[in-house]
Design a protein that fits this description.
The protein is of the alpha+beta class. About 35% of the residues lie in helices and about 25% in strands. The protein is built from 18 helices and 20 strands. Its EC number is 6.1.1.6.
Amino acid sequence: MTEPIATEEITVEEDANGVPAMTTVERAQLLLDQDAAITARIQEGATLDEAVDPSNKEFGPQAHPEQVQMRVAKRAMMLKEGLNPYPVTLDVTGTIEAVRAKYDGTLEAGQETDDVVGVAGRVLFIRNAGGLCFVQLAAGDGTTIQAMLSKKQIGADSLKLFKQLVDLGDHLFVKGRVIASKTGELSIFADEWAIAAKALQPLPTLHKELNEDTRTRKPYIGMIADEKIRNMVRNRSKAVSSLRRTFDDHDFLEVETPMLQTVHGGAAARPFTTHMNAFDLDLYLRIAPELFLKRCLVGGIDRVFEINRDFRNEGVDGTHAPEFTMVEAYEAYGNYDTIAALVKELVQKTAKDVFGSTTVTLLDGTEYDLGGEWKTMSMYDSLSEALGQEIVPNGGPDHPGTSVEELGRIADKLGVERDDVENHGKLVEHLWEHFYEDKLYEPTFVRDFPVETSPLVKAHRSKPGVVEKWDLYVRGFELATGYSELNDPIVQRERFVAQAKDALAGDEEACDIDEDFLEALGVGMPPAGGMGMGIDRLLIALTGATIRETITFPLVKPLNG
């Protein structure tokens, strides 16, 4: 006797009609029992209509709806007839796209060819006209072609089975000659057909726009129904390929760094935590790969980059997601000026590679120009100008800056939100964001940040209390950041200790002290420039979409959560 499988039972909550709750295991077993009952009826000789239970008297309201039951019955009918609803292979000799490319505009209405092709696609439309059926098949990229199935060509029994078994959404294989119909529609006049994969779930109405809930919870439906969603997936892939080519052109080496880390660092962010049973060890999901990529510089890999998944346990909005993709790169003997030039090239080349121009058309129809030279501005100078008073960086005892108390008074007067754990740098950044963050429309490098908020950045070569860091803003949001990287292990330890004290005071975004990284810096890291840019945000900049629309499978809260 086998041991029962231990399964976590997640409760499915009651619906609006007060249907009793079931565990996921109980409901899955219910659906299996219903599938088996439908199949048994078909095997016993029932018709399709006789096999389904429109009222769900036997299995209740949480069982399959009638449409799904009917498709399950058709699957059972295929098995009874010796037809595989999910065949391993079919005689596919070409693609819908290739047939279109070869014959579009070349055939007159009613003209036929001797070119026999076997293609497969998803059924989006069926029209039965007695002894002739018309089917619209779609390739994955949305390219469509018409298939024609004639009783004279395939036989009465085959056409009857087609009408009985094929539904919208099925993957269908057809093989036949390429022709133009009497109305001039490019078509495949079928000699044979087969279901390549039987769809048990019906498609949504394809001529209606998908709601946001369906698009995010069932992105595979969005890819079928919405050309914009398919294009986003393809454009994202093109963008990543473009970035890799540009890095390769500059002799950067791509590496992979750990997603599970014993110490979280590389950015100011709240991490996700997990536990490794084998070592009985609490771990953090990566918030940034920076400290490991810098170890590569120590090891002699002078130009290194990574396209990576990062995880930050923070808020969700139009430009923030808890799981996202970043590209980070580090260049030995570079600085924040050289890395700014690289980022500009990366963004502009990506726009050209994906859309053919540095002027892109956003989803709302407006154009956005990423070409030419980009603006620069100083954080402290621009904040002083906006306030009408000079804000001085906090350069230590010899160069005292504007006090925390004064900055706090200004923030309160303006109604700027304040943190529980405050310092000069945080207040300066909050005040600057109040005036500028969502107002920088054209591409702009904002330079020279407070030292308190930039623990991994080298001090400015001539401005006390400021570090050599920039943030790149486009269309009112931050797209990328770049540094002259801190490589002095003594100063880095000072910065880590200051962060650790902030963490003890309640700052959940402060970095931990990473002794292994400090030891690596002690071996010697060359001067370097570094950058980080969100791939999702790059797509936002190029398309005008929200972050959820750029992520193929965005995280959403479960309906039963």
